[in-house]
């Protein structure tokens, strides 16, 4: 069922779709997402034209961080279904030509995990060394969710380290047995037939206890996380994971590297390491800045990066709000970009219909642990409720986590047809999957690039500003028009000339 190999590896040719399981689709009527709900949407996803799914955690968990706090790595949380449902999902997805990668959280476990219960119970427990215990707080490290990263445990009479909430306890990756256990967990899912993994915050693994000897610098009250990630030994740990996964032919290993530095991100990708990493340098930009986009495309080219392309995920505001200001034309232009620029697109559930950010208007709306922590921290520091809420709202990741409203698919302003058509064009044009860039140009709100594969040359003209395009209207594969009928985006076969030759792109004087 899979498309024929175009680039050398299937994943380089795949358009992935992130499914945040708790809010994607409710299959049993209890108001939250589950695996049966995912199964029921496979025909939709197939029709949309994506060819890979990234499933966020569905394992048993107290769900303090919506599943990123796993208490059993080899099962399905009853709220989401059963292992039989998972097997069915995998089978149905594969039959539809859709590959499935799982989110795997190897940096930390839930404090409810039996390993942690055992570990805290006695200094002589064989599990004691699975986590990072210290008699005294050794350094000033803060959690990425706010507050001290060291928590005192009464039972153990010691402090343990947690990079996220205190209920997400970091594993000790210098412990050989931890590494063996994690390898077995990966094999468990590979044996069931999954196509790969998205490794959660994988550069945060604690591979070097000697780093506890160093305080992180604090600038203007903000901690710079220097010693608590990218530790000595991290590449060896990732190599081990890679060996386990790649012993199964054709599996894909994608890493979440919590960094903006392209050079550092790239250092984790390559033979024997990860197959790819998320490029937050582009994906998480705060506002639509076309010059910045062009600059990042050029930088990624210069670094030889084959990027992942995304603008939304469960951890950030939806780009329909954040980058487009709910402007449908801009959303369509960004869809063209995601599906025609060089890289592996990761669409986020519902961006195609297009879902909007969930409103977060009062402390009651703060469900995400990061938002709630922030709120409590500020109140404890003596801030008023309003100030605490404003602080917490900025940190909360509730916005993009609302239940997908599938009724929106039928709305007049749904973008779904545009996504379908673009995915279709992508499939039948090798240059859009495996082509190199020709020119990359930007002028004000205008972005232009060419994708070239053998004799096929496609030009992509995207006008994010107020102007419109005056490009010879021939050989057009796709166009984006605004409500006034002006052409704002074009995908066309290019002949000899290009942007600075025969075509003129005329922004309005306000550009
Ligand atoms: C990254 C995940 O995307 C995020 O949702 C989670 O809170 C942290 N890792 C901790 O697991």
Separate helix tally? 15
The CATH fourth-level homologous superfamily of the largest domain:
Glycosidases
CATH class type of the largest domain? Alpha Beta
Between the first and last Cα atoms, what is the distance in angstroms? 47 Å
Number of domains: 2
Q: CATH topology of the largest domain, what is it called?
A: TIM Barrel
Low-pLDDT stretches: 1-6, 500-504, 507-511
Fold and architecture overview:
By secondary structure, the chain is α/β, with parallel strands linked by helices. It has two domains: 2-107 and 176-359 and 402-433, Glycosidases (TIM Barrel); 360-398. It contains 15 helices and 22 strands. The strands form six sheets. It has an eight-stranded parallel beta sheet with strand order 13-12-9-3-2-1-15-14, covered by helices on one side. A five-stranded antiparallel beta sheet has the order 16-17-18-21-20. The protein has a three-stranded antiparallel beta sheet with strand order 5-7-6, with no helix packed on it. α5 packs parallel to α6. The chain is globular and about 75 Å long. It starts with 15 loop residues before the first strand and ends in a 5-residue tail after the last strand. Bound molecules: 1-deoxynojirimycin. 1-deoxynojirimycin binds next to loops.
In short:
The protein has 511 residues and is α/β, with parallel strands linked by helices. Helices cover 28% and strands 18% of the residues. It has an eight-stranded parallel beta sheet with strand order 13-12-9-3-2-1-15-14, covered by helices on one side. Strands 16-17-18-21-20 form a five-stranded antiparallel beta sheet.
């Amino acid at each position: 069922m899979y498309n024929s190999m175009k680039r050398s590896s299937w994943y380089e040719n795949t358009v992935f779709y992130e499914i945040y399981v708790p809010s994607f689709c409710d299959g049993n009527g209890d108001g939250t997402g589950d695996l049966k709900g995912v199964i029921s949407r496979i025909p939709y996803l197939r029709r949309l034209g994506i060819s890979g799914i990234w499933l966020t955690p569905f394992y048993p968990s107290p769900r303090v961080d919506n599943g990123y706090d796993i208490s059993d790595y080899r099962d399905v949380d009853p709220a989401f279904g059963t292992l039989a449902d998972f097997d069915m999902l995998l089978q149905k997805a594969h039959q539809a030509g859709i590959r499935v990668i799982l989110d795997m959280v190897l940096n930390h476990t839930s404090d409810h995990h039996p390993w942690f219960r055992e570990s805290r119970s006695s200094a002589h427990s064989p599990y004691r060394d699975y986590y990072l215990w210290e008699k005294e707080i050794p350094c000033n490290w803060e959690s990425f969710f706010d507050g001290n990263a060291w928590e005192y445990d009464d039972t153990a009479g010691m402090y343990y380290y947690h990079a996220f909430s205190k209920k997400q306890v970091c594993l000790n990756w210098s412990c050989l047995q931890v590494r063996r256990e994690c390898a077995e967990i990966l094999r468990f899912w590979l044996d069931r037939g999954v196509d790969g993994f998205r490794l959660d915050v994988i550069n945060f693994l604690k591979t070097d206890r000697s780093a506890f000897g160093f305080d992180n610098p604090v600038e203007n009250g903000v901690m710079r996380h220097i010693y608590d990630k990218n530790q000595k030994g991290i590449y060896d740990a990732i190599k081990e994971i890679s060996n386990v996964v790649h012993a199964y032919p054709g599996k894909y290993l994608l890493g979440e590297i919590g960094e903006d530095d392209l050079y550092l991100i790239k250092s984790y990708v390559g033979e024997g390491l990860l197959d790819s990493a998320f490029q937050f340098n582009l994906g998480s930009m705060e506002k639509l800045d076309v010059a910045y986009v062009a600059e990042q495309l050029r930088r990624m080219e210069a670094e030889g990066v084959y990027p992942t392309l995304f603008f939304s995920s469960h951890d950030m505001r939806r780009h329909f709000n954040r980058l487009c200001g709910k402007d449908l034309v801009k959303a369509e232009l960004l869809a063209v970009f995601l599906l025609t620029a060089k890289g592996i697109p990761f669409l986020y559930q519902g961006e195609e219909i297009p879902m909007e950010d969930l409103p977060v208007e009062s402390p009651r709306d703060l469900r995400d642990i990061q938002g709630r922590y922030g709120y409590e921290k500020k109140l404890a520091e003596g801030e008023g409720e309003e100030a605490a809420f404003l602080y917490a709202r900025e940190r909360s990741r509730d916005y993009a986590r609302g239940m997908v409203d599938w009724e929106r698919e039928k709305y007049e302003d749904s973008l779904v047809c545009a996504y379908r058509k673009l995915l279709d064009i992508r499939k039948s044009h090798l240059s859009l999957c495996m082509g190199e860039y020709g020119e990359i140009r930007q002028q004000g709100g205008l972005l232009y690039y060419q994708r070239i594969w053998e004799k096929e040359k496609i030009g992509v003209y995207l006008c994010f500003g107020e102007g419109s395009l005056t490009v010879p209207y021939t050989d057009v594969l796709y166009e984006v028009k605004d409500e006034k009928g002006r052409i704002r985006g074009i995908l066309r076969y290019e002949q000899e000339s290009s942007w600075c030759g025969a075509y003129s792109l005329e922004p309005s004087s306000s550009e």
